[in-house]
Structures are given as C-alpha cells and as structure tokens.
Specification:
The structure holds two protein chains of two kinds. By secondary structure, chain A is of the alpha/beta class. Chain A has helices spanning about 5-10, 10-25, 35-45, 55-65, 95-105, 120-130, 135-140, 150-160, 170-175, 210-220, 225-230, 235; strands at about 1-5, 30, 50, 65-80, 110, 145, 165-170, 180-185, 190-200, 245. In chain A, strands 1, 2, 3, 4, 5, 6, 7, 8, 9 and 10 form a ten-stranded mixed beta sheet that branches. Chain A is globular and about 55 Å long. The two termini of chain A are about 25 Å apart. By secondary structure, chain B is an all-alpha fold. Chain B has a single domain, classed as MetI-like (MetI-like fold), CATH 1.10.3720. Chain B is about 80% helix and about 0% strand. Chain B has eleven helices and no strands. In chain B, helix 2 packs across helix 5. The N and C termini of chain B lie far apart (about 40 Å). Chain B has helices at about 1-15, 20-55, 60-70, 75-85, 100-125, 130-135, 140-150, 155-170, 170-180, 190-195, 200-225. Classes of the chains: A alpha/beta, B mainly alpha. The interface between A and B is medium-sized, with 19 and 16 residues.
Chain lengths: ~250, ~230
C-alpha cells in the first residue's frame, strides 16, 4: 500500500496496521509518499492499493483505468497556519481572500509543498479560485517557497522561517508542540480534505492482489474501524483528527 | 547544540537497553551493507587485479571511467534500480521492488567502481620484483595473482572498508528502492531522515551515533585482517 504522508504523520496507520494484519493474517507494507508519487506507484503496479486525498487526481486515476473505484472513508479540513504576529493580516478571512492578500501585499512568506501531493493540489485549487494562474504564483517572488517534501518537514520549515503554509489539520495537531505557528484561516468549504482508498485495477495491472486490496477497503469502511477513526486523536490532542464518512455523499 | 549531547546519551541508552526496534534497524543496516560489500568484493577484487595485469586496448579509458563513477549520485542509482525492478520495468516480474534485496543490488552498483578502482591502485603499488620472483619460481597466473593480492592486502582491505562505509552510509538508494518500510526496509540512514523530518532530533542523532559505532566495530575487524 502507498499512502499519503499526512496519514503517517498523524500516526493513524501505526494504529490501524496491526489490527488489519491480525484480522487478515497478512503482512501489510506501507509506503509513505505524497499523493502524486503514490498514484505513480499504483500506475506502475508497484502497490496494490493507494490511500490519498486529492479528488481530481483520484478521479483521473480511476478514469484512466488504473483504479477500480474511489472509496472515501474519512475527512477533515485543511487550514492555513502562520506566525502569531500575522504580518500579512489574513487572520479570520476566507482562504481565497487570504491567498490574494499574500500575493498582492508581499508581507509574509509562504511555504508550499511543491510536490504534487494532495495538499499541494488543494493549494493550487485555492490559487485558481482566487483568480491566479499557478505559474504566475510560482514565479511571483522570493516570498513563495517550494520546498518539495512531506507535510511534517514543511511545517517545521514554516515555523523556522515564520512563514505561512497550508496544512491538513491532522498533521498540524500532531506537530503543534514543536511549532511556533498558529491557525490563521480555518473556515471555508474549499478547505475540505477527503481521504479515499482506491484498489489498483487488476484488469489493467494483472499482478494486483485485488482480494487483499478489497479486504483493506472493507476493513476501513467497516463500522468498528470507522468508529475507531472517529475517535482517533481524542486522547492525545483533545479533538478527533478525522470524521469518518464511509457511504456518505460529500459535497464536491 | 544541546541536542547533540542529549543524542549521545540517548544513543548509549538505546544500545545498553537493546531497544528492539532500533536494534532491528541497526541490524538490518549492517546485514544489507555487509551483503552488498561481500558480494561486490567477490567479483571486484579479482576483476580489479585482472584489469591491472592484462594489457588491452582502451585500458586507460576503462580506468578513467571507473574513477569517474566514484562520483555517481546515489539517487541516480536508486532511480535506475527502481525503474529496473518496478512492475512496469524489465525485472518487475521478480517482485523485488521495495525489498532489502533491491537495496543490496543498488549498493553493489554504488560500490563496484570504488572497489574496482581502489583494488587497481592497490595492486599497482606492489613491487614489480615480487611479481618477477613469483613468476621465475614457476607460479601460475592464478598463483601470482594470489601472491600479489597478499602483498597488497593492506590497501585491498582498505578498499573493502571504504566500500562498506559508502554502502552503510548512503540514503538515496535505500529511500528510493526500499521506501523506508518499517520493520522491513527501514535502515539507519532512512530512519534518521524520517526522524529528523518528524522533528525528533535527539533520536536522529542517537541513530547516527549508532551507525558510527557499527562502522567502528567493522573497521576494527578489518584492521585485524590487515595486520595478519
């Protein structure tokens, strides 16, 4: 299985892996990679199942025949975090307005994943929504930094540089104690972050262990595991990191 | 800077308490690097000797090329091995991607030029007179090679030590073809990079110290071999 780094950084898989391995008496190998890389492993047939969070990429993956079906199983929200002093003055405004201010005012820098991960895709969506061509943003100046690494390291870097960044809430909470960053923008439908499991299509990639991939999907959407996911993080962070959503229709 | 001191105490703690996960990672690092070094030495030392003793056209070029590959970036090898062993690649059917075996293959590719190049310079340092004496006493080509290798053992063992050092300390191949799977392909270097990205600097430093400690033990053993 290849999964997005944010599910690793929150510790969710460390928690679920032994349960799955015990229930199905199998050794699950988990690789952590950004959404783009995870999808690439799927296309090459190097994994049997991918768990990622970027609807557009996922739909394309399924449409091209590489994935059987997109199965959303949990969601949470992205948020924009930044220094407490909020030099760009974006606290509490909408995500699109916040991005607009960042690029127009030039006060405050932004660290981007820059790695075709789900978080990076979401960032591009917000730029687009705010009316900017992403190529323009990338070349807009030294305030925009493309770091090309996982969510955790990006947060550490943003904290060191006292810059803004877009993060999923789970990774932020998991790293919060090590960071000098505050949530500045956390409201807006555009910030919805849905995690889906997709089995690699055995018709396209015959080596796929489709039965075990399906077992893992059934495991994730089962009521017991959905319940565990909804409570995950409560003990450690005081709030749950994910909302289970198996079988529920989510707004696009 | 205080992290370094804490890392040091943590390293001692982890070693003394024989912390199972860390010991597993350290053992894996050692086994993978030792395997690749031994396998590569097995063909590189004889081949290096052969290149030195045989006259053939383009010999200088071959030696220059070998030395050029000392500088090959580990990620380039990682990418090459990945493409080779990926399901979509020529060796995909072997199902070996993301296993310790592919990591060994990658490390062997990495250290082959080093072992070859340093073996060539090791045997070229052997006094010509020894060669002539062995031959005049009627030694066969193979026996002569053994005599020369024995004479050059100090430098040859140093070459093996160098290869091992490069293998156990590299991270580019391990991360690209092993993918840092916990309990399976996670080695010291990839664990250090992961723990650093998680902000666990002390643990990272401790793991680094354990790596140096392993290198120290191996080098003491190699040193014994040199002195014999």
């Amino acid at each position: 299985m290849a999964t997005t780094t944010s599910l690793y950084d929150t510790g969710l898989w460390d928690y679920l892996e032994p349960m799955f391995e015990e229930e199905y008496n199998i050794n699950l190998n988990i690789m952590y990679a950004g959404t783009g890389r995870a999808l690439e492993y799927g296309k090459r047939g190097d994994v049997d199942i991918i768990i990622v969070h970027s609807q557009a990429y996922e739909e394309q993956f399924v449409a091209e025949g590489y994935g059987v079906q997109r199965v959303p199983f949990a969601y949470n929200y992205f948020l924009i975090v930044g220094p407490a002093a909020d030099p760009a003055g974006i606290k509490g405004i909408s995500p699109k307005e916040a991005f607009k201010k960042l690029i127009e005012n030039g006060s405050g820098s932004f660290v981007s994943r820059g790695d075709d991960s789900g978080t990076h895709a979401k960032e591009k969506t917000i730029w687009k929504g705010a009316g900017y061509d992403y190529e323009v943003v990338r070349n807009a100046g030294a305030w925009y930094v493309e770091a090309g690494t996982g969510m955790g390291p990006i947060l550490m870097m943003a904290s060191e540089k006292q810059a803004y960044t877009l993060t999923d809430i789970g990774t932020y909470l998991a790293y919060k104690d090590k960071l000098e960053l505050m949530p500045v923008v956390d409201k807006g439908d555009i910030l919805l972050n849905v995690y889906s499991a997709i089995a690699v299509n055995p018709e396209k990639i015959p080596t796929t262990k489709i039965d075990m991939a399906n077992n893992l999907i059934n495991f994730l959407v089962s009521p017991e595991i959905q319940e565990l996911i909804s409570n995950y993080g409560v003990k450690q962070y005081g709030v749950s990191l994910f909302t289970p959503c198996a079988g529920i229709e989510l707004p696009p | 800077m205080v992290e370094i001191w804490r890392g040091l105490t943590k390293a001692v703690e982890l070693i003394i308490s024989f912390e199972p996960e860390v010991m597993g990672i350290a053992g894996r690092s050692l086994i993978i690097a030792l395997t690749s070094t031994l396998l590569a030495s097995l063909f590189c030392i004889p081949l290096g000797g052969l290149i030195h003793f045989r006259r053939f056209p383009g010999k200088r070029l071959v030696i220059s090329l070998i030395q050029t590959f000392f500088s090959i970036p580990t990620v380039a090898i990682g990418l090459f091995v990945f493409v080779l062993f990926s399901q979509a690649g020529p060796l995909g059917g072997l199902n070996l991607l993301f296993t310790p075996t592919t990591m060994v293959v990658g490390q062997m590719i990495l250290i082959t030029p080093i072992l070859l190049g340093l073996t060539i310079s090791a045997v070229s340092g052997v006094d010509k007179a020894i060669l002539d004496t062995a031959r005049s006493l009627g030694a066969s080509g193979f026996q002569t090679a053994i005599v020369v290798l024995r004479e050059a053992r100090f430098a040859v063992v140093a070459a093996v030590g160098m290869g091992f050092g490069r293998a156990i300390s590299e991270v580019g191949i391990a991360i690209m073809v092993g993918m840092n799977i916990r309990g399976f392909t996670r080695v010291l270097t990839t664990a250090i990079s992961l723990e650093t990205s998680k902000g666990n600097l002390e643990l990272s430093i401790a793991l680094g110290i354990i790596l140096i400690f392993i290198a120290l033990i191996i080098n003491i053993l190699l040193n014994r071999l040199q002195q014999r």
